[in-house]
Each structure stands twice: as C-alpha cells, then as structure tokens.
Amino acid sequence: MPSISGMTNGTFFADSPVVVNVTGLQWPPSSPFNVVFVEVTDNDGNVFGKFHADTGGQTSHEFDISSALQAMWAEEDFSNEVDGANSAAGSTTDVSKPRGFRPYSIKVYREYINTDGAFERTPEETLSGGSCCIGGMTEWERSVIGDGGNKQATAVTGSTVFGNASTKPGSPEHVGSGSITSKVAIDSENTNSTFYGVSSGHAPTVLRDSQPYVDFLFLNRRGAVETCSGLTKEAMDIAVETKKYGRVERPSFAPSRSVMAIGSDGRRSWNMSSGYVTSEWAEWWTMEFLAGKRKRWWMRYPLYSTDGRYVPVIVEPAKKQTDIYDRAKQNMPHVDFTVTLALEG
User: Fold this and answer.
1) Phi then psi for 143, rounded to 5 degrees?
2) 3-74+101-156 belongs to which CATH class?
3) 107 has a pLDDT exceeding 70
4) Distance between CA atoms of 182 and 123, rounded to whole angstroms?
5) What angle do CA 242, 246, 251 make, to 5 degrees?
6) Residue 343: is its pLDDT beyond 90?
7) In angstroms, rounded to a whole number, what is the distance separating the alpha carbons of residues 258 and 281?
8) CA distances, 62 to each of 21, 25, 74, 154 (Å)
9) Eight-class DSSP state of 161
10) What is the pLDDT of residues 252-293, one digit of tens each?
C-alpha cells in the first residue's frame, strides 16, 4: 500500500512549492508502464488538481501540488477583512478578522499492466489531514528557514513563521493623522488581520503626519490583508470612452443614424506616491505593494473623507523602473504609482 509524506507536518503556503512524496509503490516487473495518479481535493470531495507520472518502475515519486492549493484560493473573497477595516476607522476598539486555513486531502491510485497482460487500476487510497494558507515565501526565506533549501520550508510550523505575518520593514512607518493601522499574524489555525482606528489606543511603530494621506489595504505575500498609507500628487484623471458603430438604414431626410456613438462609463484614476522614504521602505513599496503575486488592493474613498469606505482599486507602477537609491544624490527616494477605481462610474 503506498503512503504519502510531506503533507501533515505543517500548514503550507499555497504560493510556495509544496512537495509530497508517494512511497511504497509496487509494480509487476513485466508492465510496460507504471503510472501513479494523485488528486488533491477539499473536504467536500471537490477536485482542485490532478497529477500523474510514469514512475519507470520506481517505488516512489514526488509531486509539487502547489498549483492545486492555489486553485483552492483562486476565488477567495476578502470582504471580511475589508469590512473589518471599515469598522475600525473612527472606532475606539480594534477589529480582528481571522481567515482560516483550508484543509485538503490527497487521493492516490495506480495504473499498469498486470501479470495476465490486462490493464489494471487500483482502488483509490485517501490521506487526509493536510492544510494550507494563502500566500507564499521567497526563495531566501525558504533557504534560511529550511536550513539550506529544505523543500518543506514552505510549511508554517511552530518553530518558523508563527507570529508576525507582516512583510514591512522594522523601521517606523509614515501614516496620516487619521489613518488606521494594522497588525497581521499567523497562529495555529488562522491568518489574522487586526485593524486599529486612530482613537483605539493602539500605538504601532508609526510616525503620524499632518499631511493628508490616502489609506490602502492590500494582500501581502504571506496572505494577510494589512494597511499602508500613501500621498496623492494632487492629480486626478477621468477617462470617458465613446464607442462608434455603423448601422444600415434606408435614406431619408431625417437626421442620419447610420453612425451611432455610445458613451461608456468613465474610470477615475489618481497619481500617487509613497512620499519620501528610506531605501528600505522604497524597496518594500516596489517589491511588496506594487509587485505582489496576488494583485488585491483597496483604497479608502472618497479621499480624505471621515466617512469613506474601502473600495477595490487597481494599482500600477508609474514607470517600469524604480530607482531605489543613487549615492550621487542626497535626496531620499520615493515610489510613484497610479491608482484606478476598479468600479464603473
């Protein structure tokens, strides 16, 4: 009977390589092919990934099932965290929103030609008990935590990543005087986002500024929704698109409608900036906020409003290349980007 190792020794980050090893495979010596099949399912039996390989008669084979785990999170709705951030704004208490890990199971079966020359498929064998969370780890993190690149360093265990799930630098963060702040953590069952209003009494390592900052939520690479604040460059564009199409009509003296113009809804966009920051923070704004693997952002809108709400937006770099530092210049770096409402109208 085959067995599977590498799925129950931690909660895996779905966006990192997740390697399971199927061992104990037995094959008839005369079979021309020896194929092992692996299916990744949730607890309801829904299949999110199918993998197979001809083992060549080997008794074990490894599979990277991360694509299946990513599929489990593909349609995830983050309204829970967004509602928490909206509730925290102007509140005197903090608001916590946990996001539970996703359980999964693995089914294994084999196909081969038996000693009688007939095709044979073995019954499915199921191993349950796996769990995964949204997000991932960098090659550097896996190498350091895994002591030389151990493939299982993609798992969350009590000795590695439990605790702080933020990717921000340890130096103070600049936020506006009315900005909410956040703390994100990973415990034994959840990825948890806690949001703090200005009057909640929470004092994270932030420098509050009297300038009007724009508040954002975003999904960091470890799968946690946290906050950050940027500066608007006082530039807003509204694009209105008009579509034309031809229409065949009989000639008449009435106004011609052979060409019609239909106006579509406009989209609002703003030019924004991180403001002047250290090179460490400039790298974070570029590599984490702008270049995250899962593109999820929300912005507090209307801007600077005390009763604004977080709405979905699209964030794009203002230019393809960002200069983090230049020793020939004395000024601090800043990261510019464009924000567009992901809503019509």
Assistant:
1) -65, -45
2) mainly beta
3) yes
4) 49
5) 130
6) no
7) 56
8) 4, 12, 24, 15
9) T
10) 655 555 555 555 556 778 889 998 888 889 889 998 999 877
Give the β-pairing of 11-13 and 125-133.
Answer: parallel
Q: Read off the pLDDT of each residue in 306-330 and give the average, rounded to a whole number.
A: 74
Sequence ranges of the domains in the chain:
3-74+101-156, 162-239+265-341
How far apart are alpha carbons 152 and 311 in whole angstroms? 37
User: How many CB atoms neighbour CB 158 within 10 A?
Assistant: 9
Query: Given this model, what pLDDT does residue 148 score?
Result: 46
Structure tokens at 157: 């265990």
Hey, what are 141's tokens? 């993190």
CA of 27: how far to CAs of 23, 32, 98, 123, 126, in Å?
12, 10, 46, 15, 19
Strand 242-246 and strand 297-301: pairing?
unpaired
**Cβ burial, residue 123 (10 Å; 0-12/13-18/19+):** exposed
Q: What's this model's pTM, rounded to 2 decimal places?
A: 0.81
CA distance 222 to 15: 9
Q: How many CB atoms are located within 10 Å of the residue 217 CB?
A: 27
Residues 6+ apart with CB under 8 A from 80: 97, 99
